[in-house]
Amino acid sequence: MKKLIALLLSITFFLMGCNNAPQKETQITPAGLYNEPHRPQVHFSPKEKWMNDPNGLVFYAGQYHLFFQYYPDSTVWGPMHWGHATSTDMISWKEQPIALYPDSLGYIFSGSAVVDSANTSGLGKDAVVPLVAIFTHHNAAGEKSGSKTYQNQSLAYSLDSGKTWQKYAGNPVLKNPGITDFRDPKVSWYPAEKKWIMTLATKDCISFYSSPNLKNWVKESEFGETLGAHGGVWECPDLFPMEYEGKTIWVLLVSINPGGPGGGSATQYFTGNFDGKTFTPFQTATRWIDYGSDNYAGVTWSNTGKRKIFLGWMSNWLYANVVPTEKWRSAMTVPRELKLEKVAGNYVLASYPVKEMDKLQEDKRIINDIDGKNYDLSKEVGQITGPVQLHFVAPQLNSFNIVFANSKGEQLIAGYDQAKNEYYIDRSKAGDAKFDARFAARHTGPRLSTSKDLLLTIVLDNASIEMFADNGLTTMTDIFFPSEIFSTVKINSPSDFPIQQLEFSKLKRS
Length: 510
Description:
By secondary structure, the protein is mainly beta. It is built from three helices and 35 strands. The strands form seven sheets. The protein has a six-stranded mixed beta sheet with strand order 1-5-4-3-2-21, with no helix packed on it. A six-stranded antiparallel beta sheet has the order 24-35-26-31-32-33, with no helix packed on it.
């Protein structure tokens, strides 16, 4: 997640002190801005400069807060700040002033935010409920010196519904015991024992801590030393309960870099039980929340009740610093609703675009009884001129592909291989890939559903595709960089492939 850059101490402290001038909120949709090459239209991206992990996702007083790893001085990774954006629907965003700046304790790495309704922290005043951010302080000078304790956990709080933030005077609240990777706290309330639980990435494991007040933390247990994928460092964990047929199932998300199924970054997950101290998994097989190459460090919003909404960083550390955008780097996925399904006796996590995305649909066309063996959708709906969403239902699943193409001969292909029982996205001819030899590739994801039919949804933006197969049981996300946007779409199959219904919608700019 974070490329560790050794800097001289004097330079570090200079950078920590810069850029503290007051800023104004920015609507993320000025026309000129969204005409930039590869600029997403229906995904959040910062107005300018570098962005990576989503941080501090919290819903409060009618607003969704999105904080994110941000470097305001360059389009490549640097001393981390917390950028900030707000929305009432997770679709239309306003970029706010930077929330947290680096300081003498270090850069502001990833973390979470909670609504401290009972004021357990004592940080609230005059009956004002505090929002509390829990984040990692990363001391670059300490890392450079060879210390193992350069990452520690700290607090900041807001008494004006997230508009401004003040760091806690007693930082850090959880000091490093001597672990080189000790970061990314995701904190939630555990009502059964009236305590906060911190899920923390510690090298290639997860450590659980508890606290009655967000300030004093006690270690409860560890998880994952011999389970899951271990091709790289574990990062950005998230632990939360979900309901399935009246039963509470706990889900643990763990991002890993490298070691993903498509190379580089990816996010695995576990389902199991959590008793306030220990997480006990139901399965030992490695499972991925997304089998594409570009969905990393995703976490869920807090304070949304039983609704679990996920957001990921739409990039990959293999090439994030060198993708061909000029004024900004990277975007977020669309927000996704999480749900549990049971497949072959196992609990499986599925994800699907949030219902709020429906408000972006326009010029919706519903086409019935299509021959998917050779179907040119462009003849029915005309040329694509921007983001679109496709949803179709097929009563019998056969091999097929959907080809998005432009006048330059570039094409992006998504489909299903029946012989291998897997979905795929092929971006090998989808545009500029010279910035990294590993970028032009075909990525695959297993079909988990045991049904004979197919439900498939695709969200295509100017430089990204998100595919949700079988109601989100298999999800794939890839970015790409065509020389012009894809304007035509065709469906092909080597055998009969009847499509019962196809919905096609243009997506207006959010």
